[in-house]
Design a protein that fits this description.
The chain is mainly alpha-helical and 197 residues long. The chain is built from 8 helices and no strands.
Length: 197
């Protein structure tokens, strides 16, 4: 996407490769951990999700979108649970290199949830012929919420570093109770307000 029009005779800029989009997404996923405690810089999560959605919407294919989503989920999980290597090695007795391999394998699996959501979003966009704003404002956030929910529920779940936990000190808590519960719990579908508040 260009913000300025190119000269009429200028050749179009070459598209970014999927590998470079994956690298950008992985770095954004790792940076999103800064939005959680103890730093609590919650706007970073909004920025990193915007970067993810931008990369997915500009991908060449559904497969590329899924790989970009996986890279984001991998970076997010690896940065979010890296400290488990200490617990696994010190208290579990596993050698440190094997602990890092175990955490990397966990991140590979957890990235699959994000990959499925981003791949499904790209597929739905192509299938329904959605414009970029419609996909960005409707499909991607909805499928992101579904991936967060499945990540916390499927196979007994692993709800570590769910999106909503980054917003426990954000202005979103000043919203009406139903929406605030949905945002702060990071789950979809959210429980009714009386059950949550």
């Amino acid at each position: 996407m260009r913000f300025r029009r190119a000269a009429p005779g200028a050749p179009p800029a070459p598209p970014r490769s999927t590998k470079s989009r994956m690298l950008i997404a992985a770095i954004a996923g790792g940076a999103s951990v800064l939005s959680f405690a103890p730093l609590g810089w919650w706007p970073i999560q909004l920025l990193t999700l915007a970067i993810l959605f931008y990369q997915v919407l500009r991908a060449e294919s559904v497969k590329a979108s899924a790989f970009i989503g996986w890279a984001f989920g991998f970076g997010w999980c690896l940065a979010g649970v890296h400290w488990l290597t200490i617990a696994i090695s010190r208290f579990g007795g596993l050698p440190l290199p094997l602990a890092w391999i175990a955490i990397a394998l966990l991140a590979v699996y957890m990235g699959a949830h994000c990959a499925a959501a981003m791949g499904a979003a790209a597929w739905l966009r192509k299938r329904w012929g959605l414009s970029l704003p419609a996909a960005n404002l409707l499909v991607l956030p909805a499928l992101w919420a579904v991936s967060e929910w499945t990540r916390g529920w499927l196979f007994t779940g692993f709800p570590w570093a769910s999106s909503g936990y980054a917003h426990n000190a954000s202005p979103s808590l000043d919203m009406p109770p139903f929406w605030a519960c949905s945002v702060s719990a990071g789950s979809w579908p959210s429980p009714p307000a009386p059950c949550c508040c």
